[in-house]
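Re-running the complex after MR caught last week's input typo. The corrected sequence lines follow. Everything else is unchanged.
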Amino acid sequence: MSTKTPLKLIAVAAVTLSAGSAMAFEPSKSVEFIAPANPGGGWDTLVRTVSRVLQEEELAEQNFAPINTPGGGGAVAWAEVAKDEGNDHMLFATSPPIILVPLTGSSRYDHSDFTPVARLSTDYITLLVDADSDYEDIDDLMEAIRENPGLSIGGGSAPGSMDHIAVAGLAGEAGIEPGSINYVAFSGGGEAMTNLMGGHIEAVVSGASEAVGLIQEEEGELRALGVSSTERLGGELANVPTFEEQGLDYTFDIWRGVMGPPGMSDEAVAYYESLFEEMLETDGWADARDRLGWIDAYQGSEEFGEFLDAQADEFSDILRELGMVE
Amino acid sequence: MTRLNVNQVLGLVLATFAVLYLVLAFQIPQFALPRPIDSDHFPKVLGTSLLVLSLMLFLEKPQARDIPDPVQSREEAALPAWQRPWARVIITFLAIAAYAALLVPLGFVLASMLLAVGLTVYYGYRRHGITLIATLGVVLGLYLIMTRVMDVYLPTGLLPL
Amino acid sequence: MESLNNLIYGFGIALSPMNILYVFTGVFAGTIIGMLPGLGPISALALMIPITFAMDPSSGLILMAGVYYGAIFGGSTSSILLNAPGVAGTVATSFDGYPMAKKGQAGKALAIAAYSSFVGGTLSVVGLMLVAPLLSKVAVSFGPAEYFSLMVLGLTAVVSLSDKSLIKGLIAAVVGIMVSIIGIDRQTGTERFTFGSAHLLDGVDFLVMALGIFALAEVFYMLLRGGGGKEQPRNAIGSLKLTRGEVKEIAGPMTRGSILGFFTGVLPGAGATIGSFLGYSMEKRLAKDGDTFGQGNIKGVAAPESANNAACTGSFVPLLTLGVPGSGTTAVLLGALLVMGVTPGPAMLQDRPDVFWGVIASMYIGNIFLLVLNLPLIPLIAKILDMPRALLLSMILIFCMIGVYGLNFSVIDLYLLLAFGLLGLAMRLFGFPAAPMILGMILGGVMEESMRRALQIAGGDWSVFVDKPISLWLLVIAALSVFLPLIKKAIKGLRLRHA
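Corrected-run output:
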């Protein structure tokens, strides 16, 4: 422990030296780190985990203060951040809704209004059925939907948002009209899963990490029919095949990242980029990430920006097929 | 033409509201995907129910206790205009509205102190020392608990707190 | 026998010095936070998350559970003293608690709330211990159709809550439901009645309406009718002591309230609120002196208070046995447990019995702490009412402001609060009951959503509500609870006419 401080000092000195010019950015006060939702959700967990790891690993001189700005599925926080142009001391947690919510017309601001900073991690979609159900793999389920389009599939968010898009895209890949899926919106993934266990609906689409506790080998109440990743996931989910393995050329990422207000300075972006890159290497992060079932998927600002544009194209295609945008 | 009783007046006011509500309900757009019950159904049912209920209220005989008594007591009439009961309600209302408008520019502590001390004095409590200490204690206490312990952000405004 | 062994094992964990300290800290912090304006169990738990990060999971959950039921315990204080219910579960407590305080029985009302909370908390832990695994089946047996029928049953309480005029009560309930559906429709994403305001997208918060039509309206009313300027005789706090007769009187309501609260609490969703409202209206109908409910009847405090605390414990059933959160509060708990490396769910009883039984044992201890801690505090807290009236009114206003502003840090909420305050005043002047409106506001949104979900699943077939046995029974009970009193009244009327 005692050697840590000097080493860190040297590291800081090295960074400062290598950055060289006087233009290098360091936060001069605590950074507002916004979760555009209430405590307890995915964005909130990301914000709190990141700021805790940064603090525990002593990576940043300044405190990253978690702030919850709930409302409108993120729209309230986005409107606030968008007004704060050029603020280098403000960041917010982001994931696919930043693209989907504006597409369905519920937010005036979309991803292009903000400065992408970094993509950090990702999670995947899984389709769940009751453990006693007849559906053994994704083909069984898709076949059943083909025969009975009224088959109800629950999800934790509104029609046209992430869960719906994910299952509609999958159905489209299986040759089923995406708009014909009987998607039932619940007010959260937990509620959807309870309804699945009670036999009120036939299947649930959910984030894989959310469902881990319920699909354990022996005691599990639910069965996962597949995951939307390119390779199998680890841990409890190691036995769940990917959709691609089952002959459906379909992947879906629930990526999580960090963005800043419009017009954030290049120096600040560079600072945060390397800060997060460094953070992903720490044990503290690895620990938290594994517990939460996330998978590292770092992208720097520029790459992340291009990725976001590609996602926006993909999502608007699916929404168009669903008839939800013109 | 006979004068309307209180339930009839209320009935008409509520019916007007119900009609306005229904007009808005009919403007709720249809969802792109067919739903058994779309967003507009429930509001339409609510508006119609309110309309029917307000007509029933129109026909109901008012009971004595439902009629607010407009008679001012002599004691109240003797008060200066700005101290009469209705004036107290209106001034409190305006004070809260002003508070809402000034909360962010002045900050929580200052705005709350002004509101609490101002209204206490206006309501007629004359021991200003106690008022000042009590309000300062409560406002500052709440402020510190909220911001320092609970991490709830309250506007700081002019004071460097 | 097995549960006894398990319980002894649990006490072994809960009685370790550190865990006793955590229970104590948890319930103490919870009570204080529950009393603060606008801060409910969710904010209390969110505050604890960083603290529990590095803790042993059983200790962490013991602490957080303590905070949770402590906050529910503390929440009744502002309902009783200021007519300002901070969370939906304590609204029903204010119906008789506040009138008692006005009559100079604040001490007794708070004491009854404390005893009832203790009874509700303790009886429901017994329930949690004995039948939790069985009840997990009950929790999942409620689908959208059943919820819709449960909400219908909950709304029938309107009939008992509006003894002034049934029509006015119904009007209030309809307006309450109208408020509840403002915002983005979760079933379609369509905006309804938002008038283009981004602020209204998530609808009107419960607290804005509750503090408006109860607390603020009460301030306005006192200014109008109470001769605000003049120094009024101060409200006495009154004795805390209950007579033997009173204890006997509330024993039944407390027991029934606890059972009802526990079972509704098990259901994911509006458990505590439905439990306390149903408990209240059930006691009102059972009581011989039902007419005096709403004027400071001690049974009207005992029933909802035991129910909301029992519901809090009940909400641990789906969390611990299924791993699914039934409410926003338990969702935060679930998140915290996951971070600590414990996955609640069917396997938890086998994998982590220390967490399960440790928490259950700690709840017995925590409820005793709460009672011992709170009874001596009551005279102190009730001193609030001893303030000069002019000062008290300003303080209630500040209390409402901070509670409402703290919700979203939005000034718009303050204007909404003011509007509801005026609405509440008008309702009082013209004899409209406020309780049905808040009930409609709380249940209306869930009712519409579950109805539409049920129909979406059933492909638009309305028979789904009567085909499912639980749903059918709930609807039958709802119908009986509306029509029986009306029929009784009609028969009574006929008799009177013939006599």
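None of the earlier attempt is carried over here. Chain C touches chain A through 51 residues (CB under 8 Å). Residues 228-232 of chain C have pLDDT under 50 and may be disordered.
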